[in-house]
Specification:
globular, mainly alpha
Length: 277
């Protein structure tokens, strides 16, 4: 991970937020893997059979465009008091944080309600629950990006969104450190390089379409493990409603914080508030 240093341009509020970003980057993943005991392993196995990584891979690919369309801009422009989303990229971090907090709270409420409803039906409900949770997660990341002035519409932007998902659903500190490093590298490269140049560079290094597909597959496996560990107890009908609500809340909360910290750092970099040390 890159270590950044505050510049003279940073305000006290922005500096405090950067301290929180660093804490988040260094924090152990909150996945409940440590609480999944031996007795839940057969249930976890059953969940993985019902929702294999291939299904999650398909959900990631199909949900991306839908999530982008669902992340409308009108309310953010209105509540931000700006004429366009781009204005928020250089306006005020505290304002962007307030807008993001509203999106975060809304997503928590939706995830809780959906998880509770689907969880009532046990493992059968997961067939609907997990794709819905993935779509909501991607939509939340897109929406939080808007709060900081970033419309994620290009292929490079979509890769940044998926890197945020990876950071949020890391199962180990090693996975999280890798995801955070990727986000930091992309935040700098995307700011200084056009997508066309990035594509040419990727092709020259043999990181074309095949690499992108492999990346999605790896993320699907990582996400599958993370969700399975969270939702094993949801497999039981009726009592799964409470578990589904709680686990969806915890998952979307992790996604929202990952998005907020990633876009905060990107905003600070773009506004020359922090520089690589």
């Amino acid at each position: 991970m890159v270590t950044y240093l505050p510049t003279d341009a940073i305000t006290s509020y922005e500096n405090k937020q950067y301290d929180e970003i660093v804490k988040w980057e260094q924090k152990e993943p909150s996945v409940v893997a440590k609480t999944t005991d031996f007795l839940m392993k057969p249930v976890s196995w059953a969940v993985q059979k019902v929702i294999p990584s291939k299904a999650i891979e398909g959900a990631l690919l199909s949900s991306s465009k839908l999530a982008e369309k669902l992340a409308d801009t009108n309310d953010i422009i209105r509540d931000g008091g700006v004429g366009s989303i781009e204005e928020l990229r250089h306006k005020d971090l505290e304002l962007s944080d307030k807008l993001a907090n509203e999106v975060h709270n809304w997503a928590n409420g939706v995830a809780t309600a959906e998880g509770g409803a689907a969880g009532y039906f046990g493992i059968a409900g997961m067939v609907i629950d997990i794709p819905a949770l993935i779509t909501l997660s991607l939509r939340t990341i897109h929406k939080i990006g808007l709060c900081y002035g970033y419309e994620c519409r290009t292929e490079a932007d979509n890769k940044y969104v998926l890197a945020i998902v990876s950071a949020a659903c890391s199962n180990t500190m090693k996975e999280k450190a890798t995801s955070v490093s990727t986000l930091q590298a992309m935040a700098v490269v995307v700011a200084k390089t056009t997508w066309k140049k990035m594509s040419e560079r990727a092709a020259a290094n043999k990181f074309g379409l095949d690499a992108a597909i492999i990346g999605i597959r790896n993320l699907a496996k990582q996400l599958g493990i993370n969700i399975t560990k969270r939702k094993a107890a949801q497999a039981f009908p009726f009592i799964g409603a409470g578990v589904g609500a709680a686990m969806n809340l915890a998952f979307i909360n992790d996604v929202s914080w990952a998005a907020r910290r990633a876009f905060q750092e990107k905003w600070l970099i773009d506004n020359n508030k922090i520089i690589a040390g």
